[in-house]
């Protein structure tokens, strides 16, 4: 019997952890940043999807789960509950693209936050794919720590296709009642 692989989409403001070797986390990123943490000894890992840099207490908006500090702490705490050790954790960072050519580049602010957070917390960044000018999709296996990345260079434009109607032979006038 052929089973579909287990897949979980991690939307912005979310995080997920797992030790299931068949689980894959999928994250689509533009200016957002995803942190993928993995404990190779326990074969567990997790990912988050950071929409905004920093801490909501600094901004006063009170929407903590959209902010990097909340999401990083939540991800780390859930991994620690599963037995992960900080000194074994391997961090991979993705995203932070400049998507719209704006002067206020949220992607670079997210990247700055993620790198500063990793340095302040003593997390070992083993790889990263940050900045750029296009979005990306990552597929992360938390049990193995492997990540696949695909750049989303071309916007998909939906085209309306009008099928040609068959030509009907002219048979004369028609009166409708």
The CATH architecture can be given as 2-Layer Sandwich
Largest sheet: 5 strands, mixed
Q: Assign an overall shape.
A: globular
Spatial strand arrangement across the major sheet: 2-5-4-6-7
Assembly context of the chains: single chain
- Look at the structure and give the mean pLDDT: 85
Q: Compute the number of structural domains.
A: 1
What series of H and E elements makes up the topology?
A: EEEEEHHEHEEE
How big a fraction of the residues is strand? 25-35%
Number of helices: 3
Radius of gyration from CA coordinates? 23 Å
End-to-end gap = 60 Å
Q: What percent of residues adopt helix (DSSP H or I)?
A: 10-25%
Top CATH class? Alpha Beta
Structural class determined from secondary elements = alpha+beta
Spans where pLDDT lies below 50 across 5 or more residues? 155-163
CATH fold node name: 60s Ribosomal Protein L30, Chain: A
Secondary structure: number of strands: 9
Descriptive overview:
A hairpin with a 6-residue loop joins strand 8 (about 135-140) and strand 9. The protein has a single domain, classed as 60s Ribosomal Protein L30, Chain: A, CATH 3.30.1330. The chain has about 180 residues and is an alpha+beta fold. The chain is about 20% helix and about 30% strand. The chain has helices spanning about 55-60, 70-80, 105-120; strands spanning about 5-10, 15-20, 25-30, 35-40, 45-50, 90-95, 125-130, 135-140, 145-150. It has three helices and nine strands; from the N terminus they run E-E-E-E-E-H-H-E-H-E-E-E. It is globular, with a radius of gyration of 23 Å. About 35% of the residues are buried. The strands form two sheets. It has a five-stranded mixed beta sheet with strand order 2-5-4-6-7, with helices on one face.
């Amino acid at each position: 019997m052929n089973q579909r692989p287990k897949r979980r989409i991690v939307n912005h403001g979310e995080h997920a952890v797992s030790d299931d070797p068949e689980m894959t986390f999928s994250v689509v990123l533009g200016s957002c940043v995803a942190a993928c943490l993995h404990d190779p000894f326990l074969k567990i890992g997790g990912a988050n999807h950071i929409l905004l840099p920093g801490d909501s207490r600094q901004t006063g908006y009170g929407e903590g789960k959209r902010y990097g500090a909340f999401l990083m702490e939540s991800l780390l705490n859930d991994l620690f509950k599963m037995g992960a050790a900080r000194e074994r954790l391997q961090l991979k960072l993705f995203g932070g693209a400049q998507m719209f050519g704006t002067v206020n580049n949220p992607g670079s602010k997210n990247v700055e936050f993620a790198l500063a957070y990793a340095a302040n917390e003593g997390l070992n960044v083993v790889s990263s794919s940050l900045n750029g000018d296009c979005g990306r999709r990552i597929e992360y296996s938390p049990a193995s720590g492997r990540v696949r990345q695909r750049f989303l260079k071309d916007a998909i434009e939906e085209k309306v296709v009008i099928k040609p109607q068959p030509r009907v032979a002219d048979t004369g006038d028609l009166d409708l009642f």
